[in-house]
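worker-03 picked up job from queue 'complexes'. Input manifest follows; two sequence lines, order preserved.
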Amino acid sequence: MRRPLGIALAFVVVLAALLGAPPRGAAAPEGTLTVAVATFGNERWLPNLYVGAEDVVLKPMYENLLTRDPKTGELAPMLAERWQVLDGGRTWKFHLRKGVRFHNGAEMTAEDVRFTFATIAREGSANSLAPEFRQIKSMEVENPHTLTVHFDKPFVVFGNKVNQALFASCAFIQSKKHIETAGEQNAERQPIGTGPWKFVEHVRGDRIVYEAVDKHWRATPHWKRLVFTKVPEPATRMAMLRAGSIDVIEIGGEYVDELRQVNVRTLLMPNVSWVYIILGGQWPTKATYDPKVPWAQPDAEKARKVRLALNLAVDKQAIMQRILGGLGTAMNSWLAYPNDPWATDALKKPLPYDPAKAKQLLAEAGYPNGFDTTMNLTAWPGRGFLPDVGEAVATYWEKVGIRVKRRPLDRAVFAADFRARAYSGVALAYAAPLVAPETWEVIFRAGYTKAALNLFVEHPKLDEYIDRLAVQPNYQERVRIMRDELGPWLSEFVPGVAIGAAHTIAGVGPKVGEWPIIAGHMGFHNWEYVTRK
Amino acid sequence: MWRYLAGRVAQTVVSMLVVVSIVFLLTRLSGNPVHLLLDVNASEKDQEILTRALGLDRPLPVQYGLYVRNIAMGDFGNSILTRRPVVEHILERLPATLELGLVAMVLSVLLGVPLGVYSAVRRGGALDGAARVFAVLGQSMPTFWLGLMLILFFGVILGVLPAGGRGGPAHLILPAFTLGYFTSAAILRLTRSAMLEVLGSDYIKFARLKGLHDQVVLWKHGLRNALLPVVTFAVLLFVQFLGGAVVTETVFAWPGLGRLILESITTRDYPIVQAGVLVMSALYLAGNLFVDLLYSWLNPRIRHHAA
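worker-03 finished. Artifact:
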C-alpha cells in the first residue's frame, strides 16, 4: 500500500477505487473475441504450478484479493472489499466480499484464500511468488469472510503480492474444495475461478477458450467468448489480424510501422520492461566467482571503470530506435522507470555514446587492447528481441577493441547456469518485466537470499537498501530512499549496461472498441472491460 | 513371402529400439525441464523436490530401463507440463496432421504426376519448359516464404481464404498447397524421368507397333510402369508430412503433431518428445515396410532375391 497505514485510510482508498472503477458491462455478452499470442507460457493453472508467463491467459478466469485502479494505479478492492495493515506491516487483515461464487457455484471464503496462499508457498512450488509467501508465519480464518495473515518481519508491500499484479506474480484465489475433491490432475483439466470468464477448453499449444460469466459480481464481459490462440509466427499474426480472423495480436516493436501503414490500431503499454545487459560474475561470495573477469575483478575502481566503459561504448538510443522500433525510453537508471517518483532527471538521462572515452577507461583499467568475453544470445519468452540487442551491444563493444564471442544458447540450457551463478565473464541481454509498482520489489525476493538484483550482482550495500525498504511502512520514506540513496548508488556503481524501458504493443482489429488498461501492466489484461464496436 | 515379412518386421522392431534409445539420450542432453518449470529465484530445495517428483533424480540407466519397460507395456507416460497422458496430446493433434498430410499428398500427386507425364511426352516443348520452371520454383522457394506470400495475397489482399488456423476445408487450402508444392515439384521430376525411361523401352515400342492408341500406351502401359518409384516416393512423403511439416504448421498456426513436438522440445517435455518421435518413426518405418512389401508384390524378383 502506498499510503500511511491504517484502517481509516484504507477505507478512503476503497472509496476512491470504487468511484474510479470501470463501468460494468451493460448489454448481454455477444460474439467472440479472438486473441493471438506468441506463447501461453507453461500452460498450467494451479497456484503451485504456474510460474509467471501464463498471466495473460490466466487473468480472465481468476481474481485476486485486490486490484489496481486503472486511472491512478492505487490498490483497490477486488475479492477483498477492504483490508487493514496492522502492527507496522506484520499483520494484514482481509475482509472478503460476501456472495462471490466460483464457477461451480460454491461461495468463495477465507478458507479458499488461506488454501491458495499455503499452496503457493508449498515446497516445490513453481510459483514465482513462493519466496514471498514463505514469509508468512501463520494465517487465521476468523470467520468465513475474514482472514488475518501474520509475518515475523514487517511485509509492507504484501498488498502488491495479492493484487491483479502488473506482470506475472499473481496470487489467484482458487477453490480449496474443488482442488481437494477433484485432485490436482483433474483440477488442472477443469480449472475454476471467480473471474468474469469461465473455462471451456484448452488444447495444449493451440487454444484456450473461455466463456463469459453471466451477471458476474464485478464485470459481465461484453463478449460471449474469449479465445486465445497460439500463433508463434509474428507475420502470420499480423496477416490474421489484417484478414479479420483475429481481433487482437501481440506484436513486437519492429512491426509497429507496418501496422500503422495499413491503418491497424495499436494499443501501447508504455515502459513496462527494463532492458539491460547483465555482466555475469559479480558475486564475490559465491564459489563460481572468478577474479579474472575484468568487470568483477577485486580492484573495485578498475572493475567499475570497465563497466562504465562497456556502457559508454554502446549507443542506447540507436538500439531503442532500430531494434525496439522506437518503442521505449533510453535511460541510465536502475530500478526506476521514467514516470516513477524516484526517477530523477539525473537518473533518467542515459549515459552518452562515447567510444573514445570508453577506450580511455579500458586503458586506465589495464585493458588497452581490450579483452575476450562471451555474449550469450538467449531469447526469453515474450522478449524475442533480446538476442538482437545482445548482438548490437557485442558489435559496439568490438569497436572499442573488445573481442566478443557470440554464443547462441537455448534458455533451458542457460537456465541452470543462471540459477547457479555459473556464468562468470558472460554477458547477456535481459529484460525484466515490471512486476510491482515499486521497482525494488523485483529484487525483494532475491534480496532475502542475498543474491540481489535479478541474480547478476551481489553487494552488501544493495542488500542493506533492500532490507530497509522491505520493512519501511511509510511510502514517502521508501520513495526518498529510492530517489536519494538507492538510485544514485546504483547509478554510480554501474552494475551492468542499462539500455532503457521498453513498451509493449498490441495490434487491435476493427471489431474491438474501448479497452481500459492499467498503467505499468506488461501483458494483456482487463478483457472483461473490452467493448464491442 | 511370410519369411520375408517376418524378417522386415524384426528389422523394424530393432530400428525402433535404436530410435527410442537415441531419442531418450538426446532429450536428456538437451537440458533439464526443472529449470523451465520453476522461477529463476526458486530455491535448491524446490529444484530437488521437482526433480524427484519427475523421477529425474534416478540414474540414467534406471530412467532408461523404466522408459523402455513402460513403452513395451503401452504406457508413454504423462506430459511434464500438463501432467495429462501423452497419448491424449498426440491423439489431440493427430487428426490435424493427418488431414493436412493427406490433402497435401493428394495435391502433390494430382499436380506432379500429370505434369510429369505431359512434360515427358512433350519433351523440349513449351509445356515441358513450363513444367520445369514450375519444378525449379517449387524446389527452390523456401516453404515459410511461400506460405507468407500466399497468406498475404489470398488471406489479406484478396481476402478469399483464411490466413491461418484450423477450421473448415477453406483453412486447408493454403497450408496444403504450401506443403504440397515443394513435393509436387519433386514428383513431377521423378515422374518425368521415369516416363522418359519407360517411353524409350522396347515394350512401349512394341505396344505402339501393335497399333494401340497413344493414350492407352501412355496411361496404361507407360504410366503404370513408371509409377512404381513415384508410389514409393509418395508413401514416404506422406509419412514425412506427418512429422516434418513444422515450418508450414508454424507459419499457418496449424495445430499439428510437428508443432507439438517442436514446442515440447523447447519446454523439455521429454515424454511428449519421446512419444512424438516414436510415433513418427513408427509411421516412417511402417511406411517403409509397406513400400517394401508393395515392391515385392509388384516385383517378384525382390521377393525371390530375399528368399
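worker-03 released lock.
Chain B touches chain A through 48 residues (CB under 8 Å).
The radius of gyration of chain B is 24 Å.
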